[in-house]
Each structure stands twice: as C-alpha cells, then as structure tokens.
Amino acid sequence: MVAYVFLAEGTSLPKVVKRRVNALKNLQVKCAHIEAKFYEEVHELERKYAALYQPLFDKRSDIVKAAYEPTEEECEWKADEEEELTEEMKEKAKVEEEKKDEEKEDPKGIPEFWLTVFKNVDLLSDMLQEHDEPILKHLQDIKVKFSDPGQPMSFSLEFYFEPNEFFTNTLLTKTYKMRSEPDENDPFSFDGPEIMGCTGCTIDWTKGKNITLKTIKKKQKHKGRGTVRTVTKTVPNDSFFNFFTPPDVPESGDLDEDSEAVLAADFEIGHFIRERIVPRAVLYFTGEAIEDDDDDYDEEGEEADDEEGEEEGEEENDPDYDPKVGRRAYC
C-alpha cells in the first residue's frame, strides 16, 4: 500500500513525490536569497543613476524658483499634431496672451509648482487640508537621497522650503528603512525590498503657527458642587505635515490596527513620491501623467472584469467547485 500526504488543495501525492517537492521548495528558498541580492544590486544601480538625474532635477528646481531663466532654445517644444494650431489661431492666441501679460505682473519662476502637483494627485490631495496650502506654496523642491554604499538599504525624501512665517526649517526630511532579505519564517513571501520603518523630523513651528495641533474648548461640570467650567485643550489636527511624524514602530514590531493602517498608507505615499512624483513632476503639474495613470487603471479594470467573469463562468460549470471553499489564487 502507498502512503499519501494530503495537500492544502485537497489533492494527494505519494510520499516519495512529496519528498521531491520538499527538495524543490529548498531550491526555491535559495532562489529567493539570490533574488534578494539582485534587488540589492538594483538599489546600487538606482544610486548610480540618481547622480546622473540630479543635475537635471537641480535645473528644474532653479527654473521653478526663478533662480534660472531658460533660454528661447530650451523653451521650444514641438506640440503633438492634435495641439498644433493654424497660423491665424496662433496669432490670435499670441495677442491674447500678450494682453493678459500686460494686465498682470510678470510672475517669477513657476508659482505654486509643487502645491499644484500635490493637488493634482489623488493620493496626495487626500492628505491636504486648506490650512496646509499657504505653507506648501513655499515648497521649492523635493529630492530623493539614497543610502551610502555599504550602509543598510534606505532612501530619504528631502523637502526644501523657502523662508516662511510658519516654521524656521528650510529642509524637512523623511527616511524609509528597507530590507531585501527573505523572512526565515516565510521565505516564499519575498517579493522584493520591503519598507521596514520610517523616521520623520522635528518641525520648528513659529509660535501660534503649528497647524498639526488645534485648540478646543470643553465644558466640565463639577460632580459635587454642580458648577461648570470651560477647559481649553490642545488636540491633534489633520494636516499633510503629520507626514513628518509617523507612528513609532516598537522593536517587537507589534502595532495596533490604526497604526498599521497609517504606516501602510505612509509607505505607499513615500514610495509613490520617490518612484513617480520626483522623476515626473512636470507631467503631474500639467496633468499629463494623471491621464496616463487613469488610462492604465481603466485598462486593468477592464481586464480584471473580463477575467473575473471568465472565472465565475468556469466555477459555475465545474462540478467539483464548492462556493463555500472557493479556489486559491496564484500569481
């Protein structure tokens, strides 16, 4: 009689085959460790190319904050066919533009560049409050800085501000610590570098300008005498600038559900700023990158709907399908 070992799927394999499957799993663990080394080298490559991008980003910053005026040649841009105008329309548009310029003062640089980027991106605009906007008008640049060679994997987001009435800092930072190493207890879950934690910075608020706090008044009734007094309390206030004070992650790694949700959203935002916002800022300013993102999501949604419909049809036609159990999804 052949001994069988039951698998999670409800199927069975002979014991000798199960042994060989275990051997494949051990090979898979070794693959995960090689993959981890691959991502470490990718991080080194990112650092190398970040140095090549930076002069271009510095020039972008100089144009935005009016430290540099681009030449006529640098400002030439060939429009798409759909954007091209007839000579008559071009002349009319030029006259109207000159008329508007005469009516208003000549703006310096590109006013509210980063604030506009933030407002154009849903992930960031959801964080913005009305009282954040006057401060973000002073944001001049965002840079990504990678950890030095030989140091633990990490990256920092650097927010540069011009002098303003709200705080004395000219630089606010947020650092994300990463790990590219399979978990010993669950090596098969490895899917590239993970953000393990983040640290913010102290904002030196000008007196009375700290928008991350608000003052509320509460009435309290004395238990014995029945008299009522008004107590003033300072409580946290919703603000984008809470981004720089993330929850502390204890050494045990245990967090309550609220803190976990805050950190998960924080990691997503930090990664998005690093991967998309900083490299393509001008396209988020104009809205062109938003259109591309929307197109991508529409296509994925349509594909997902089609696949879902096909799977539902297959399940309904499968005599062994149990709707209470369902099927495991593999990727």
Q: How would you describe this protein?
A:
Helix content is 44%, strand content 17%. Strand 1 (4-6) and strand 2 (12-14) form a beta hairpin. The longest helix is centred in the first third of the chain and has 50 residues, at 15-64. The strands form three sheets. The chain has a four-stranded antiparallel beta sheet with strand order 3-4-5-6. Strands 1-2 form a two-stranded antiparallel sheet. A two-stranded antiparallel sheet has the order 7-8. The protein has one domain (15-286): Nucleosome assembly protein (Arylsulfatase, C-terminal domain). Mean pLDDT is 80; it is low at 1-6 and 306-331. The two termini are 36 Å apart. With 331 residues, it is α+β, with helices and mostly antiparallel strands. It is built from nine helices and eight strands.
Strand order of the largest sheet: 3-4-5-6
**CATH architectural group:** 2-Layer Sandwich
How widely separated are the two ends?
36 Å
Strand-residue proportion: 15-25%
- Please, how many helices? 9
Keywords:
331 residues, alpha+beta, Arylsulfatase, C-terminal domain, two-stranded antiparallel ribbon, 8 strands, disordered N terminus
Offer a quick outline of the entry.
The chain has one domain (15-286): Nucleosome assembly protein (Arylsulfatase, C-terminal domain), CATH 3.30.1120.90.
Secondary-structure topology with pairs:
Elements: E1 4-6, E2 12-14, H1 15-64, H2 72-75, H3 87-103, H4 113-120, H5 122-125, H6 133-136, E3 139-146, E4 154-161, E5 171-179, E6 194-199, E7 213-221, E8 228-236, H7 257-277, H8 281-286, H9 288-317
Antiparallel strand pairs: 1-2, 3-4, 4-5, 5-6, 7-8
